[in-house]
């Protein structure tokens, strides 16, 4: 099968979660004998080349514009569409799978794909199909969320960058997708509330090591929060909970990893302002693969206390489970679809600082419970959320629509 992925960003130029996960899937498909291609963007004209990595042919197309114009160019980017058309005609793919085209390749690329491929799929990984930027719920209690976003809501969020025709044209272009994949049931519900149908839930898959990990790190009493850190990810909720944790577990420490320079300064200023024990809180930037692995092996538990409904199951939770770490995660968004409360970790309301502190404290003080949760998380990841399982499901979707073509 010839499979062509459309993705704004892929490693190694970009190391964020969606691009990394997309690349892992592509590599697995190539290992299974499929012909795999990528069309991706580059922001340096010298990088606009064709290359091959891990048996995958990659076509880099140059795209660079002012961020102020994003909500125009992410709908229709005239500087790349002609190139995309030429490449698709050359490759003649059976399947085109668009995964994060909301920055450079644009939603209009789906129209091009529809003309030349037998089946077209679109992956929805966030709320950008209906919302301007990151979605923040009004609710602060766990339960059903009102995801409906109005024209006025987007105007207030976008201000001078607001494009009044954005949602109209996105709806037009996504009709070219034979199926839209949502990465969580929560995201599928959000899309449905905003009139976007033809959606199937396809949870992310995680590549597991051939060697089963050992449970460890409990004695370190270290709480680990990592990812693209900002307020939305619950950094300050964890910091607010830290004094309560220290009362019960004096040896407790925090490692925060993945903050850019601006966020690092902001976090350190907050630590100082709140007179938190700075010596017990380590604030780090983005970690390389080996660094991240070394830290993850050494910590006691992982937290992902997002205060917004992150549609992901939270990549950090998968990473934690892959090393048999117990997890304390948010009740908002898709994380609760992976973390089973009281079995593989705890699901908490991050706005309830006492609850967050209590669950972390409990796991730091109970080695057998921490071990039990870590083991169960690993088994769940292996059984239902492995990369192999994901690819099997993905190929079944491809095959179904190729039969209809």
What would you say this structure looks like, in words?
- There is one protein chain.
- With 405 residues, the protein is an alpha/beta fold.
- The protein folds into two domains: 2-207 and 386-404, Glycogen Phosphorylase B (Rossmann fold); 218-384, Glycogen Phosphorylase B (Rossmann fold, 3-Layer(aba) Sandwich), CATH 3.40.50.2000.
- The chain is 40% helix and 17% strand.
- It has helices at residues 17-31, 70-73, 78-91, 109-116, 151-158, 166-174, 185-193, 235-248, 261-273, 289-298, 315-322, 353-365, 367-384, 387-404; strands at residues 2-7, 35-42, 50-53, 56-62, 95-99, 119-124, 179-182, 199-201, 222-226, 253-257, 281-284, 301-304, 327-330, 345-348.
- Helix 1 packs across helix 14.
- It starts with a strand and ends with a helix.
- The DSSP helix count reads 14
Output the CATH homologous superfamily of the largest domain.
Glycogen Phosphorylase B
Count the strands?
14
**CATH architectural group of the largest domain:** 3-Layer(aba) Sandwich
CATH-defined topology of the largest domain: Rossmann fold
Assign an overall shape: globular
Element pattern in H and E:
EHEEEHHEHEHHEHEEHEHEHEHEEHHH
Largest sheet data: 8 strands, mixed
Spatial gap, N to C terminus: 14 Å
> What is the mean predicted local confidence, pLDDT?
95
Q: Compute the gyration radius: what is it?
A: 22 Å
Largest beta sheet: strand ordering:
3-4-2-1-5-6-7-8
- Report low-confidence residues grouped into runs of 5 or more: none
Report the top-level CATH class of the largest domain. Answer: Alpha Beta
> Share of helix among residues?
25-40%
Structural class: alpha/beta
Strand content: 15-25%
């Amino acid at each position: 099968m010839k499979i062509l992925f459309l993705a704004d960003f892929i490693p190694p130029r970009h190391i964020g979660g969606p691009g990394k996960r997309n690349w892992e899937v592509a590599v697995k498909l190539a290992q299974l004998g499929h012909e795999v291609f990528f069309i991706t963007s580059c922001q340096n004209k010298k990088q606009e080349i064709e290359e091959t990595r891990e048996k995958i042919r990659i076509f880099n197309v140059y795209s660079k514009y002012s961020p102020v114009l994003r909500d125009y160019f992410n709908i229709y980017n005239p500087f790349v569409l002609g190139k995309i058309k030429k490449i698709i005609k050359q490759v003649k793919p059976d399947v085109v799978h668009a995964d994060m085209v909301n920055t450079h390749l644009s939603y209009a690329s789906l129209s091009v794909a529809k003309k030349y491929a037998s089946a077209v799929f679109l992956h929805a990984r966030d709320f950008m199909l209906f919302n301007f930027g990151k979605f923040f719920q009004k609710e602060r209690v766990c339960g059903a969320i009102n995801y409906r976003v109005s024209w006025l809501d987007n105007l207030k969020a976008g201000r001078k960058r607001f494009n009044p025709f954005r949602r109209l044209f996105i709806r037009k272009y996504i009709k070219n997708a034979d199926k839209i994949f949502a990465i969580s049931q929560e995201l599928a519900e959000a899309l449905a509330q905003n009139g976007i149908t033809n959606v199937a839930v396809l949870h992310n898959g995680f590549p597991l090591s051939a060697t089963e990990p050992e449970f460890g790190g409990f004695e370190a009493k270290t709480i680990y929060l990592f990812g693209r850190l900002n307020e939305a990810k619950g950094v300050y909720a964890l910091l607010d909970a830290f004094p309560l944790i220290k009362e019960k577990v004096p040896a407790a420490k925090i490692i925060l990893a993945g903050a850019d320079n601006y966020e690092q300064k902001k976090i350190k200023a907050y630590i100082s302002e709140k007179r938190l024990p700075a010596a017990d809180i380590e604030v780090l930037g983005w970690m390389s693969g080996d660094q991240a692995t070394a830290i993850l092996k050494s910590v006691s538990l992982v937290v992902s206390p997002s205060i917004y409904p992150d549609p992901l199951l939270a990549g950090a939770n998968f990473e934690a489970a892959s090393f048999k770490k117990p997890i304390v995660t948010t009740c908002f968004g898709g994380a609760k679809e992976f973390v089973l409360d009281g079995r593989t970790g705890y699901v908490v309301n991050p706005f309830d600082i006492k609850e967050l502190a209590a669950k972390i404290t409990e796991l730091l003080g109970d080695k057998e419970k921490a071990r039990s949760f870590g083991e169960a998380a690993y088994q769940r990841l292996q059984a239902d959320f492995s990369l192999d399982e994901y690819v099997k499901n993905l190929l079944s979707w491809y095959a179904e629509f190729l039969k209809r073509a």
